[in-house]
Model the fold of this input.
Amino acid sequence: MKRTDRRRFVKSLLFIAALTFIAPKPASTQEPSSRRSPLGEVTALLGEVTARRGVAVAVRAGEPVPLAIGSSIMVTDRVRTAAGAKLEIALVSGGTMVIGPDSNVSMERFDAGPLPAPVQGVVDLLSGIVRLVLNELPAGSSVDVRTTAAVAMVRGTKFVVQIDHELPVPTASVFVASGTVQVEGRIGEAVRLQAGEGVDVAEGEAAGPVNQWGAQRVARVLELVTIR
Done:
């Protein structure tokens, strides 16, 4: 997909100030043990729930599926958490995803064959906050987290992406705990974040400036995506 087309697609999906649920694409409810492309007839396994606090559901084939420890998360699932709820997912490729409170996350794509095959993933953060801890990925791998304001592109790292509902203009925030993340706004050049750095990107604006985040802001963000 071309860069401009991708941005247009993201903008058409996400409008945070007045979010309503959008029914997901039909998908098989089978949960195979083998990993297969989400483009095939069988929905691929993304990971397994390893920790949960509060209420979380996956919408699969248009039906809500309550999530508990041990539940499978499938590619094309849309995972929603209630106020105060958090969910940790162990990814089949290695690493973890933590979805914070009041979040709506669509697992758009996740191709993960037997390692060391490259991993290709796309996650749409429709609202709320998500934290990804990715192991060092094989060569040729990429995992993108998309919001209405920005796309975070990673190759193996620990980072957090949040989308803020309450600002006058929806704003995506990205913080990197370790590794490197490239962040691209809807206009302008992409910026590269190193460990300890963060960036805020308002919808319709370029990414930047990149700053070292203060200890209080880092602690506040990480608290939302930490399950004790």
Notes: The two ends are 39 Å apart (CA to CA). The mean pLDDT is 79.
